[in-house]
Amino acid sequence: MGGEVIRKILLKGGPIVAMLFLIIYLAFATPHFFAMSNFLNITRQSSINAILAIGQTMVIIGAGIDLSVGAVLALSASMSAVAVSYWGLNMAVGIILGLGTGALTGFITGVVITKGRIPDFVASLAMMTTARGLALILTQGLPVPSHFTALKLVGYLPAGLIWLGSGDILGVPVPALITVVITILGWMIMTRTTLGRAIYAVGGNREAARISGISFVRTKIITYTIMGLLAGVAGIVLTGRLNSANALMAEGAELQSIAAVVIGGTNLFGGEGGVIGSLIGAFTMGILGNGLNLLNVSAFWQRVILGLIIIGVVVFDQWRRRRFAV
């Protein structure tokens, strides 16, 4: 019975057990960790990565990978900020433009992968470079609206947009609430819809999915479009949090989102995983980063530690899959 319990924990509960161990360790290691203000800070800081990780989970379960999410985030954020503060458009229109930009880039990536028969890695890498370049052109390489305002070219960002990234409702950060809503929607898509079953099928066995009548092309394009849309959401939230947008924001966000997905237990080769695990993975990374800051570990060493943890998690994931024939 004991061995069966351990087996189930290793198969299903690994991510949350790891997060609980980390919380317990930090609770003893630093007295400031268990403050409510610190937990709220962690939820606010982890929200961007969590939103990206949910989209990345869908892509990876479908046996793909999206390296462009950080660049698409920056392009969407820049589009919204420029539209509102430079072109003088309504805030709602600016947000729609930002979300539309993200969805369009994801759609194009999906089309290139499926119609052009280009590997996911190469297509998303090309989109990453393209999106950064477009963001630099759009913003003229300057933060928006900060430098534009200083040059008296534009106004400030509207309070509503800033509230999306920095506000709260009854003490709960708005980004955390947005993350909860997106997680619920992502979970419903993956577990309660035909699209979710198609993504699992395409990622698990593409040929079997084809024989079953599942369209590989349609599934891939929709998945990448959702990923782009979520990158747009993350970009708008981050713009509100920083009160600014620029073309170089969120560099490395693609690796952060992939790391959250891996820590959350999703199979990097597709077909297995879930958005709840990735949400836990994103918050585990947020807790780890927060704990290392409280322990005064330098930012340079934090990168080393995060890299080692990712390697350790991947090695452990492969071991448990072989050991228990997942």
Break the fold down into its secondary structure elements and pairings.
Blueprint: H1 2-12, H2 14-29, H3 36-61, H4 69-85, H5 91-115, H6 120-139, H7 146-150, H8 159-166, E1 168-169, E2 172-173, H9 174-192, H10 194-204, H11 206-211, H12 216-242, H13 253-263, H14 275-294, H15 299-324
Helix pairs in contact: 2-14, 3-9, 3-10, 3-12, 3-13, 3-14, 4-5, 4-6, 4-12, 5-6, 5-12, 8-12, 9-10, 10-12, 13-14
What does this structure look like?
The chain is an all-alpha fold. It has helices at 2-12, 14-29, 36-61, 69-85, 91-115, 120-139, 146-150, 159-166, 174-192, 194-204, 206-211, 216-242, 253-263, 275-294, 299-324, and strands at 168-169, 172-173. It has a two-stranded antiparallel sheet. Strand 1 and strand 2 (172-173) form a beta hairpin. It is globular. The model has no long low-confidence stretch (mean pLDDT 89).
In short:
The protein is built from 15 helices and two strands. It has helices spanning 2-12, 14-29, 36-61, 69-85, 91-115, 120-139, 146-150, 159-166, 174-192, 194-204, 206-211, 216-242, 253-263, 275-294, 299-324; strands spanning 168-169, 172-173. A two-stranded antiparallel sheet has the order 1-2.
